[in-house]
Q: What sequence folds into this?
């Protein structure tokens, strides 16, 4: 769902990306119009150089039917979606692609290939999903995590979920992203485990077990988003009223929050999976063109930041 046109938060991302080189991107099984169009549109914006992985005849047929010009776009033949996911992951491992993009296959299929032992794209981090949301009523891009992968994350899982989101926000140009750790209340209560986790995460950040961000929690949603609500409750916080990241207690809470922002507040949402060797662009058929392009733009910035940090280490 799109809000009124104009120079929005996503458009500023695209402006930033114009100075960056397109990233070679393995697109797994783009055998449906919106999936294929998303990759071709992102290429048209100079964001990615797509490598289409799947049944070549089917891909060309979809392009013809949709009036999409594939031009010189490389196609790597794979007989079906499982094979396409495996081959796309292999292209990343071989260094031919630096991003992975979901086409018209189930998320489980592409994530299964990513998580495959020995031949996947695992790192020491847990995979987590982020929604990068352009909410018309909020003053900047808002990251919601994790609303799609980790169902009931443990404290240790939340450390990775939090660090993944902080690293992404820093790739988007933020110096010290502000993380609001959400719960139903702003006080620690042993009968509400999410409040214990929130307090522990803040102390872990003090001890440098989580780095790069400013954390506060537990915070109820109103205290997190509204500085006035926090003031009324007597909360002194650099995060309240100005968070960049909302860390939710579990997938159900996150999923409801993201969908409420989309359908009640007319937010656009871009989606990425983090924690693998490369960012993974996860789009759905329901996504608008604007959201699909934004997902690619965020992934491109994350990939460039990853490359820069590797070069710095070397």
A:
């Amino acid at each position: 769902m799109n809000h009124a046109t104009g120079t929005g938060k996503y458009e500023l991302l695209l402006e930033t990306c114009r100075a960056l080189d397109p990233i070679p991107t393995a697109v797994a099984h783009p055998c449906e119009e919106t999936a294929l169009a998303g990759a071709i549109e992102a290429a048209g914006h100079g964001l990615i150089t797509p490598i289409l992985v799947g049944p070549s005849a089917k891909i060309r047929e979809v392009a013809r039917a949709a009036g999409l010009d594939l031009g010189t776009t490389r196609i790597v033949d794979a007989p079906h979606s499982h094979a396409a996911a495996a081959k796309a992951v292999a292209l990343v491992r071989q260094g031919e692609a630096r991003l992975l993009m979901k086409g018209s296959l189930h998320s489980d299929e592409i994530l299964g290939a990513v998580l495959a032992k020995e031949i996947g794209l695992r790192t020491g981090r847990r995979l987590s999903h982020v929604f990068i949301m352009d909410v018309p009523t909020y003053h900047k891009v808002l990251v919601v995590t994790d609303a799609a992968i980790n169902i009931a994350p443990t404290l240790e899982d939340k450390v990775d979920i939090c660090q993944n989101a902080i690293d992404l926000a820093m790739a988007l140009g933020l110096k010290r992203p502000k993380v609001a750790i959400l719960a139903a209340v702003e006080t620690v209560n042993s009968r509400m485990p999410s409040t214990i986790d929130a307090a522990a995460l803040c102390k872990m950040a003090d001890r440098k077990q989580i780095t790069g961000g400013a954390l506060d929690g537990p915070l109820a949603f109103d205290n997190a988003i509204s500085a006035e609500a926090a003031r009324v409750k007597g909360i002194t916080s650099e995060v309240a009223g100005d968070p960049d990241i909302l860390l939710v207690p579990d997938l159900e809470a996150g999923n409801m929050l993201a969908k409420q922002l989309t359908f009640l507040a007319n937010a656009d949402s871009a989606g990425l999976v983090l924690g693998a060797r490369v960012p993974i662009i996860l789009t759905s058929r329901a996504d608008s063109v604007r959201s699909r392009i934004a997902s690619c733009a965020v992934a491109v910035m994350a990939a460039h930041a990853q490359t820069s940090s590797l070069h710095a280490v070397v």
Observations:
- Confidence is low (pLDDT under 50) at residues 1-6, 310-314.
